[in-house]
Amino acid sequence: MEKLVSSQVNNQSVPESYVFPPEKRPGDVAVPTCNTIPVIDLGGSDQDEVIQQILKASEEFGFFQLVNHGVSVHDMMRVAKEFFEMPVMDRIKLYSEDRSQIVRVFTSIDYCNEDVHCWRDNLRHPCHPVEKFMHLWPEKPSRYRHVAGTYSVEVRGLALRILELISKGLGLERDYFSNELSSMQVMSINHYPKCPDPTLTLGLPKHYDPNVITLLLQGEVSGLHVFQDGEWMAVEALPNAFVVNLGYQMEVISNGQLKSVEHCAVTKSTAARTTVVTFIYPDMDNIMEPAPTLVNVQSPPLY
Ligand code: OGA
Ligand code: NI
Description:
- The protein is α+β, with helices and mostly antiparallel strands.
- The protein has helices at 47-60, 74-85, 89-92, 130-133, 144-170, 248-253, and strands at residues 33-34, 39-41, 63-67, 104-107, 121-126, 184-192, 204-207, 213-217, 224-228, 231-235, 242-246, 263-265, 273-281.
- The protein has one domain: B-lactam Antibiotic, Isopenicillin N Synthase, Chain (Jelly Rolls, Sandwich), CATH 2.60.120.
- The longest helix is centred in the middle third of the chain and has 27 residues, at 144-170.
- The termini are far apart.
- The site of nickel (II) ion (NI) has 3 residues, from loops.
């Protein structure tokens, strides 16, 4: 299966179809590491302080990192890497370019219709409620379902906790998001194999996450770049931390008070990189609008 970019890792050069045009290439992948993205300690006892930190980070950066968050991330990261270390044949069964397949493995974003392919493979599946979807998840590695099941529940707890802190910070009811606004949860595991020339390729082109909130594990290999103050900057890899970023729907709900920020993923020549991403988003039937209590004569609805 030549499409899976992970089956091309022995290539000495980047295949033509993965080379981005000059204006879209990352070029210099050694951008400065952003040391202004806040690292927030969730283990402290002063909740008001944490709320203030999260709110400030969400207003100014749209991104923050969380440490002491209480979720065990090690096994999930391990099994995610194992999935992409298996022989390609073990992943092929799940390969599909059909976006309506809820559990699938694919390369790039939209392989058949795009001009240039991204240097990434992806495993994606829904995970809430776990019991409803677990039987559809990969059978190999054999502990995948167990580990991903436990992780999905824990990471959901953390996501709802952050959403609660954001609600308090915005002056909304505490459970503003604990309903259909957070009813969907998708696990998206990105695998960016070692790339012969990272200056020509992208793991993911620049984008805003469209959902409410995203919790990302980038492990020990950096590669996530965010656009801050007119410049691309790398998010420091803190092995057990979550990188949290607000999706566009959160910008809408907060009527622009909180920011969703553009980001992309670059590739590396020295290491493969695996990231475990959790997207929280509403039921597709909802129409998004600013929270009614955040809109008034002084702050007319911006969306
Ligand atoms: C994403 C994303 C970045 C990364 O999956 O939406 O931005 O570093 N991923 O994998
Ligand atoms: Ni993203």
